[in-house]
Amino acid sequence: MDKQMVADLFSRGQDCSQIVFSHYAEAFGMDPEEANRITAAFGGGSGIGETCGAVIGALCVIGMKYGHKGPDDMEQRNKLMAKRAEFLDKWKEKRGSCMCRELLGYDVSKPEEFQTILEKNLMFDLCPELVLDAVSILDELSD
Fold first, then answer.
1. Who's near 23: CB < 8 A, 6+ residues apart?
2. Model pLDDT, residue 97
3. Alpha carbons 5 and 34: distance in angstroms, whole number
4. Rounded Cα distance, 129 and 110, in Å
5. 59-100, pLDDT tens digit by residue?
6. Does the structure show a pLDDT above 90 at 48?
7. Is the dihedral of CA 6, 45, 37, 75 positive or negative?
8. Residue 39 lies in a domain
9. Domain range spanning residue 87?
């Protein structure tokens, strides 16, 4: 996966959360289409500039890989929490924030600011970098 490939996916209507999560779908025995549907609502910080969709997609990957399967699985829950913390620490070290509107400098939920995001080409320049950062950090997580 490279920046141009991610930008192309954005131009075809895929969101950051979908790109990150579907990148790992086959490793979980999941159809990429199903992965895209699961994470479809999270792009643009869930459409309101909150947690970056690339981060949410990555957290979904962490949940699939390390998540506990139900109550009384405290050992696995602790492992999940450690992996989540490791990812978020590395993300914040690299990007400073998990908030979409802070990363972009504009709020996607405000039409005039979303227009500025498009005019400044942030969706096709910065957002692919965020997706690649999420994938890179996920690949670096220790087992």
1. 1, 135
2. 98
3. 20
4. 23
5. 999 999 999 988 899 999 999 999 999 999 999 999 999 999
6. yes
7. positive
8. yes
9. 3-137
